Amino acid sequence: MSTTIVRFAAAALAVASLSQLSACGSGHGASGGETVATGSVSLPLQTVSDGITFRLENVELFVEGSSFQSLFEEDPSESVITTSLPTGSYTAFLENFQLTRDDGTGTFEPVTATLVSSADPAFSIYNGTTTTLVFTFQTDGVIVTVGMGTLDVMANVNVVPAVCTPFGTDCPAGTWCPSAELTGAPRACVAAGPVALGQPCNGPSDCTANSSCFDFGSGPMCTALCPASGFNALCPGGGTCTPAGSDFGICTPAGAGSTDGGMDAPPDAAFSACFGSPAQTSSIIGSPQSPTGGSFSFAGQGLVAPTVSTPRGADGSILSVQVTATPGVVSDPTQNFAGFGLSFGAPACLDASAFTGISFVLNGDLGTCSLSFDAIPSEDNAVANGSVGTCTAPLCLSPSFGPILPGPTFVPFSAMTGGSPLATVDPSALNGISWLLTPPTDGESAPCAANFTISSIAFANQ
Fold it and tell me: Which of 27, 254, 315, 459 is the most exposed place for a label (fewest CB within 10 A)?
């Protein structure tokens, strides 16, 4: 395995599906043989409302207080995961999640959702009782509330109006309403781009209303979208309305994906990138509006992944990224890597084209490791990593810049290179950022032992 595959795998770790509770801590016996009093806390993963089944997946929930517990999933058939906790005060941290909905056939498909309740609620455990936590997610047209309790499930689905209607007329002039399945974010009126249909484009936000940027084999160009009512019919401007989601299709040009130019051949159109939603703030961490959804770490075979913690402020935002890394001695040069990163979650596909790069401050000791920095554009993030990754190539590699040294750093998007299949960064469709540690292999340097903190991570213009 090469570092290019690992960077791709790192993004996968950020969104990997989980399904069973794994307890990392437990109550300690009191002196004199007494048993510590405990209560219970559980996380229901599934709820039914109006005949529709919703499921919470990709769960990373950490509980800190009198004891430390980590809640993960490993068995998708389970509908609830439960653990006991010693009595005391706790804080829960919801790091990652994915809301899915049964399509009526038993297949669960991702639903675009935003966490609108606190991601780090405080709670108490009393002896022999059940404590219920509630997490509320907003989706297009519904609010889904998934509760935390023992059989006493707090779970409801309440219908709410969507912000706008794809292909509708309810957005102001100069804006339009892309489908949530296209953008990977809740419906919103977004600015129409200046590039006309049939003209070359660099990303989805370039294109005019009701169109997006697709590559049918001759380079990306702005291509018309069509409503579900037009599926498999001819589009007014040409091409066939090929379904691409439940409420939109692509006006696929004649002959796309075929060898004989026939309209009946199945199209092979691919998104050049996910549709990025503009950043709500320049701060990647440090603000309630920051896009970061969680952290991840990884390492080559035979090495140890860094330990990453993300302390939070009173408003629930991440204050810094604290890293301890002792990857070990490299025995296989092809596995010489260890790293960590931040995945974006609000939105998962982010348009940072209003900025020229990313800045951060590194304090601490890198040991004998070297450090580089990656931005993760959708085009270099594999489709297996979730709805925002669009890379279908055998090799998916994020553009990189290095070495990174302690102190303030600004990395221009234009300085990051070596990505595959997109060599450079597309700032209009970012899925996350990461750092790569490379242990020494000269046979003389001491094994790497790094301990450092990265703070003030933000989009910037310099």
Answer: 315
